[in-house]
Amino acid sequence: MMEQVSLIGGSSHPNLNKEISKILNIPLTDTLITRFSDGEIRVQINESVREKRVFIVQSLCQPANDHIMETLLLVDAARRASAKEVNLVLPYYAYARQDRKDQPRVPISAKVLANLIESVGADRVIVVDLHAEQIQGFFNIPVEHITALPLFANYLREQNIEDLVIVSPDAGGAKRADKLAKKLGAELAIIYKMRPRPNAVEVFDVIGNVEGKNCVIVDDIVDTAGTLVAAADMLLKKGAKSVRACITHGVLSGPAVERINNSKLTELVITDTIPTDNKPIKIKKVLPIAPTIAEVIKRIVNGEPLSILFE
Fold this sequence. Notes:
By secondary structure, the chain is of the alpha/beta class. Helices cover 30% and strands 27% of the residues.
């Protein structure tokens, strides 16, 4: 059945495309992605995808708007080339943090992006660790929401860390942290915080016992790292022996690299849903997401359940 699959890689993360292709033993479809002289994006699929099950892999990382437009054009090109099915693999879903109307006169940007993806004819979306799980409901097509928690759990088990406490950086992430804590048989703690404005955070306190413990902060995104570094400092002041972080998407924008390198974090564990080769972080450990995505693609093609991968 894999012979009927066409794998197309966007320009945002070539290394991830190659790894998925290698694991599945499916060559990447020859695709032209260039720009006109005025900056407009041009795409062309140079091989037939007629009656193929197409999987387009594109991480919507920086520059997000360019990668979004490129993705929409790839979906439209595959649809107009008579593909049997167009599946969109988005290891990182942009605009996910704008998932509700929390102030007057603001858009729900995550919903706008979902509408755009549907409008060009995508049949299914595969995403990794959405900022908010309810974003799945913004789509009227199937959404396969996969998680990196098993990767983190396996890595932490290999480290044999004693007195382990899994920490959520806020109340909204408590469910994610609780899942990881249960996988590891560890305790759970939750940080109470208030964010006065975007990309600024004031940490207040922690709910749970962290004194004398080795803490692991688990979250979906590290952007400017302000929240992460402030949380680590607070936990250490509360008596934690060490603080490390397991975070799916390493956005790492602005002062993030400098903040993390100057912080008291023991380790930053991220996946490669976003390329971070140009981020010189001394304590960075990158876990590959390609095997998980490849297995999901294989199971979708073979009509097999996905839930067993994340139990």
